[in-house]
Specification:
six-stranded parallel β-sheet; alpha/beta; two-stranded antiparallel ribbon
């Protein structure tokens, strides 16, 4: 499974780009999954639901399944937060896994950068940034600069960079 991250400061447009990239990559015949890092406490469940009550009672894992989807919730309790590598082991193998966040971890990533937000580039301090997608010209970058508004070009870059061109051709033909 190939992995590419989209990293950037909060509000840079990572989620917006991922939501546009997924259909562009799927049209190329690729199977795509995503993994998102949350910096805050979150819950995909609701109080009063059976699955919530199972976790509240102390279950380490609760799986919910139906004819349309399944979900596995794992409570860390007093365990340390897992890193992206650990969580990837739980993902079903697909052609491409897009990771949103985890900007300090060691997977290759495309930085999403909007100079108007006043935040510094991550790229100079992270050798795993393989390109910068921006809505402005950035001179002197040692990596490719991608137009943040050209989703098809970014999808093409990902396919080429991750070595997925042959798989994309086969998948599109199926």
């Amino acid at each position: 499974m190939k992995v590419i991250g989209l990293a950037g400061w909060s509000g840079s447009g990572k989620t917006t780009l991922i939501v546009q990239l997924i259909p562009a990559l799927v049209r190329r015949g690729l199977k795509v999954s995503t993994m998102k890092h949350a910096h805050h406490a979150f819950d995909v469940d609701k109080p009063g639901k059976d699955s919530f009550e199972h976790r509240a009672a102390g279950a380490t894992e609760v799986m919910i399944g139906s004819g349309r989807r399944w979900a596995l919730m794992h409570e860390l309790r007093d365990e340390a937060e897992p890193d992206s590598r650990n969580l990837m082991q739980h993902m079903t193998q697909v052609d491409l896994l897009i990771i949103e966040g985890w900007k300090a971890e060691g997977h290759e990533k495309i930085e999403i950068h909007r100079p108007a937000h006043g935040k510094p580039l991550i790229q100079p301090d992270d050798p795993k940034v393989v390109a910068v997608a921006s809505d402005a010209d950035l001179s002197g970058l040692p990596v490719p600069r991608l137009d943040l508004n050209d989703v098809e070009a970014i999808a093409d870059f990902i396919v080429a960079h991750c070595g997925l061109a042959e798989r994309a051709r086969k998948g599109a033909a199926e």
